[in-house]
Amino acid sequence: CFLFFCDPCAQADNIQVKRECILKALCVYLNEDPEKLVKEYLDTEDSKIASAETVIGISVILHEGAEPGENVENVSIILEGIEVMSELDNVPFAVAMLLGIIYTMNLNYPQELKYFFEFLQKIFLELDGIKLSHKVQVLKTLLSR
């Protein structure tokens, strides 16, 4: 889903769906795979098997035939293959909670999402924003114009 050019974002009245699309678009802009951040499943058994292999991420279990913006069965945060938080309302809230967990526990960002989390921490939250990677510095410059 790339910002408002994709169908779910363009047609969604739900602000949470739009926020989720923006977060995924940020991953895409930074040349990172949004599927590494948010993994969606239709079955709880599939999610349990895949969660065991997840180092850091968000798991979303959808109702079968669910449309974008509809309530999901479960949104949870996975760390080292263990579900540490569950029954979260939506993906944007889960991303905020995941960022908080990573920051407070002083964990390293996953290599495949390091620019995404660096942007959220250093630009969005303005925490330790003195030293930026080149990719994040370019995005900061573009946003400040």
From TrEMBL:
PANTHER family: SI:CH211-193K19.2-RELATED (PTHR31025:SF27), SI:CH211-196P9.1-RELATED (PTHR31025). This is Uncharacterized protein.
